[in-house]
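Check these lines:
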Amino acid sequence: MKYRLLRPRRGPMSRPLAVRSRRSWPVRVLGAALVAALVAVAAGSAYYAGRRLAGAQPDLAAENLALREQVASVSAERDRLQALANTAESQLQMARGAQQGLARQLKAAEGEAAQLQEDLAFFESLLPAGGNTSGIHVRSFRVSVDEADTQKMHYRLLVMQGGSKAFSSLPEFRGELQLVASLVRDGKPVTLTLDEDQAGPLPGLLLTHYQRIEGTFPLPAGATARAVTVRILQNGQLRATQTALP
């Protein structure tokens, strides 16, 4: 007897099996319906968005036109107000110019009045008077804060020689001018003697009948003048004096 090895036969059932999961038809139908619904929604959204965009164009144009009109109106109002402001500024400048002119005229008139008062005092001093009025006299002395610099004082004085003997022949007088200022600084009284070193080159005195003197002198920082005294000196001797308040 011959024995044969039994070999398995290959048939259709001997191929490798592939297991595939198959979806049921209700699931596939539901998925297709969902996809179709999404496509429909997207198409509808695009359609209505296009309609809204097409319908917004006229509204945007109208709004743009309205805004342009408003801008034009505001610009016209701005131009009108600017013109009024320019006119008002011109009128204000004219008024300021007129005011400054009046201030200059008033200052000049005050200066002329002060000069006339000094002249009147001088001519009154030339009239005959009782007693001995010979010698040197300060007929007028005024002080005030300088307008250009508040740290300076302005002074004016009229010095006369002779009195009732002014018409007679008189010798020439030579002397020195000295100013003594009574000040307040830091709440304390201070006396400051102003000679040529402190007040600059003070005018010298050289007269036969009369001499007008005018000038300025500086104040120490933070000081206020309460009174100023003028002294007429000759060879170190006091010949005349007078005090004025600012």
